[in-house]
User: What shape does this take?
Amino acid sequence: MCSPILLGNSIQSWTTRGLFDQMTVNPNFEPARTEAVVRIDGHVDVLYEMLEAHSDVSFDNLPDLAVTVDKMKSVDVVAAVFALYCPDEYDGSGSKDFLAHLLAYAERLLKGLFHIKSAQDLSDCIRLKRPGMILLIENSDGLIEFDRTMLAQAGVRVAGLTHMGRNRLGDGNAVPFPEGLTEQGKDLVKELAREGFAFDAAHLAEPGFRDLVRLHEGPLISSHTGVRALADIPRNLTRNQVAAIIEHKGVIGIAADPKMLTLSGKASIDDIFHHIDWIAQSFGADAIGIGTDFCGFEGINAGFEDITKMTDLERIMREHGYPEKSIRAIMGENWRIFYESLLQ
Assistant: This one.
């Protein structure tokens, strides 16, 4: 477990005041000149929105999405992790076919982005400021039968075992009275670990999370989430889960979805900062990232409506006294380290 850090005006705010005291913001703050920030979004559901609303339109012809090539370029977002989301309705014999369809769909219509399949690809995107995409599986039910050589060819190395419901591997975190991983789930974890996969626990219920931590010693992430200390819902991470991900040298991507950030379901960019700050004050900044979940939720996060607002989040962190090193870590450096190691 990392030691907590003291971040300027946010010092120990969660133990002394609860939510961050806005009065500590410096109104005369002027940012210092710093080295470039590497910006990476650890989870977007663009493919889901494309399939649902724009099924035959390529990504580069959808300017109104929250994530576009031009928006990524405008704020130097060098990579976004695109979820291959398999809805629970396909769980079972149809899931492998739907996953194959998703892979083909992404290859055909995610135009304008460089497909990152290796550590060198990611380094090149950063060096050239060329927006790229990484693929991640959200609901791995289909991997029981799927030809996983296809995943290797697509550079897919992260698997989320479930979505919200129950599948053949285990229970998602919307299942009442959830149980742990099934025998098929445990067997798949062992197989994927041998193949060099990391696991995304974003939708995994707590009993399955505990099983996963016991079975897997390698990297573990939660690509898009909040923390239960600020929004106590099963979808979010407990303090012990945050600690376990850090111990597994993973990254926790804080989402923009208002339902994960507040119990009211209404949220702003400040709420994203609150969740970041809670982890930073408790554990340090070296395992925090951004995983917006753009295109995967209803509603609007005020002040963080699309991917261009990542720079506004940096400004808020600077106003609250965050060191530049911590800001760079949170906005993309932690994801860069994770993926460059994983994609070797």
In short: The domain at 40-342 is CATH 3.20.20.140 (TIM Barrel). The longest strand covers residues 77-85.
